[in-house]
């Protein structure tokens, strides 16, 4: 019996061992197959060659196309095209300044009818009552003549019309012309001072706020001077506005004027100083200095403008400080003029855009405000549309023919 039990135990142990081996073999993962070997690539057989081509190639000197003789003609010679020459800038001859305002009278008169012809229409009424005189005052104020000059003109017109009695159109025109001339002023010295006694060059500084046309006015003034036989150096002291120096240089090149410029955002006083220095060395007649457009509310910028003036005067006194005003700005322009006059001692006024407005009375108002004359007026976009101010031609344009 014991023998049977022992045999059964041995059989169970053997069966268990065999089952474990079978399960273990199933759990084993098969190893990945080894990567295939790169196939051996056999180069295709070379094509058969004959004679010299069958030999190993040798490095031989090569000839250029110029050295190869082509059949039926000489060797081809390849010539490089000549370098293009820069075209020479043609120097323009500016229009003479004498009588410019007279020649531009038609353009000026078209934009001034509201003032001159409006006054003539009102004064021609059969009965000049208080309502009419109020309309006359309103016409003058609308044209930016200013309150005080308007009151003075109306009082004189009242007296003269009362004495005159019957008024013909010709008498009214003559009366209005005379009174407007008195208001504008015919005894003021409107010459742009560019010929200082005993020295060269004359020094002119151009100032004004942004957008009034300062740089353009500086370029046009250079043309005015060149037209009168003067030599000019331009100082591009507006170093804050992008391309201002390029714009001024272009104006100068058109009339053969040299332009002194500095780095962008550089010190404007240094550029102005160098311009006067070079002007002296070159022996030119006039140096025009274009300054940056200052906002009159910016105290620091106005102080810097005063610095430019002081630095320039280390060479010589300034002969002119011209303030450029936009004629369309009206009373705001008078505020600007007042502040600039406190900083740099304005000696003359340049009124731009006078052709595009019926507010010609700004001529009177700004002269009263600063006590200095209007010396130049801009009457258009053309290069020669800057004219010396002539009171007679101006008034004649106001009242028409």
From TrEMBL:
Residue ranges occupied by any SRP54-type proteins GTP-binding domain in the UniProt entry: 373-386
Keywords: Cell membrane, Cytoplasm, GTP-binding, Hydrolase, Membrane, Nucleotide-binding, Receptor
Residues annotated as binding GTP: 208-215, 290-294, 352-355
Span list, region Disordered: 24-73
Source domain of life: Bacteria
Signal peptide (from-to): none
First-tier enzyme category under EC: hydrolase
Stored Pfam families: SRP54, SRP54_N
This enzyme's EC code(s): 3.6.5.4
Membrane topology: Peripheral membrane protein
Primary residence: membrane
Keyword Nucleotide-binding in annotation: yes
Subcellular location: Cell membrane; Cytoplasm
Basic and acidic residues composition-biased segments: 49-66
Keyword Hydrolase found: yes
Entry-linked InterPro entries: AAA+_ATPase, P-loop_NTPase, Signal_recog_particl_SRP54_hlx, SR_rcpt_FtsY, SRP/SRP_N, SRP54_GTPase_dom, SRP54_N_sf
Family: Belongs to the GTP-binding SRP family. FtsY subfamily.
General function of this protein: Involved in targeting and insertion of nascent membrane proteins into the cytoplasmic membrane. Acts as a receptor for the complex formed by the signal recognition particle (SRP) and the ribosome-nascent chain (RNC).
Subunit note: Part of the signal recognition particle protein translocation system, which is composed of SRP and FtsY.
HAMAP family reported for this sequence: FtsY (MF_00920)
PANTHER family assigned: SIGNAL RECOGNITION PARTICLE RECEPTOR SUBUNIT ALPHA
Descriptive protein name: Signal recognition particle receptor FtsY
Organism of origin: Streptomyces eurythermus
């Amino acid at each position: 019996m014991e023998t049977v039990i022992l045999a059964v135990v041995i059989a169970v142990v053997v069966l268990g061992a065999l089952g474990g081996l079978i399960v273990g073999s199933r759990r084993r993962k098969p190893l990945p197959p080894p990567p295939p070997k790169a196939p051996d690539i056999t180069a295709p057989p070379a094509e058969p060659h004959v004679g010299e081509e069958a030999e190993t190639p040798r490095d031989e000197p090569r000839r250029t196309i110029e050295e190869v003789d082509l059949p039926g003609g000489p060797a081809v010679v390849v010539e490089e095209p000549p370098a293009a020459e820069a075209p020479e800038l043609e120097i323009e001859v500016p229009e003479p300044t004498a009588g410019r305002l007279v020649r531009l009278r038609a353009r000026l008169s078209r934009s001034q009818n509201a003032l001159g012809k409006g006054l003539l229409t009102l004064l021609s009424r059969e009965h000049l009552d208080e309502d009419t005189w109020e309309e006359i005052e309103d016409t003058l104020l609308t044209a930016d003549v200013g309150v005080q000059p308007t009151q003075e003109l109306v009082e004189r017109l009242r007296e003269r019309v009362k004495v005159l009695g019957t008024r013909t159109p010709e008498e009214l025109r003559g009366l209005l012309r005379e009174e407007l001339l008195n208001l504008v002023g015919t005894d003021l010295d409107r010459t742009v001072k560019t010929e200082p006694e005993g020295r060269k060059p004359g020094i002119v500084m151009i100032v004004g706020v942004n957008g009034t046309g300062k740089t353009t006015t500086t370029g046009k003034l250079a043309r005015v001077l060149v037209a009168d036989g003067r030599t000019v150096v331009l100082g591009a002291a507006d170093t804050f506005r992008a391309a201002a120096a390029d714009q001024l240089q272009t104006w100068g090149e058109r009339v053969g004027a040299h332009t002194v410029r500095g780095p962008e955002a550089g010190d404007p006083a240094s550029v102005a100083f160098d311009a006067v220095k070079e002007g002296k060395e070159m022996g030119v007649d006039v140096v025009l200095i274009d300054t940056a457009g200052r906002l009159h509310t910016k105290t620091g910028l106005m102080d810097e403008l005063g610095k430019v003036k002081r630095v320039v005067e280390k060479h010589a006194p300034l002969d002119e400080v011209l303030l450029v005003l936009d004629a369309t700005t009206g009373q705001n322009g008078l505020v600007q003029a007042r502040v600039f006059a406190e900083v740099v001692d304005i000696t003359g006024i340049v009124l731009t855009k006078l052709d595009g407005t019926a507010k010609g009375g700004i001529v009177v108002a700004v002269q009263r405000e600063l006590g200095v004359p209007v010396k130049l007026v801009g009457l258009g976009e053309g290069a020669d549309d800057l004219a010396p101010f002539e009171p007679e031609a101006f008034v004649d344009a106001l009242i028409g023919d």
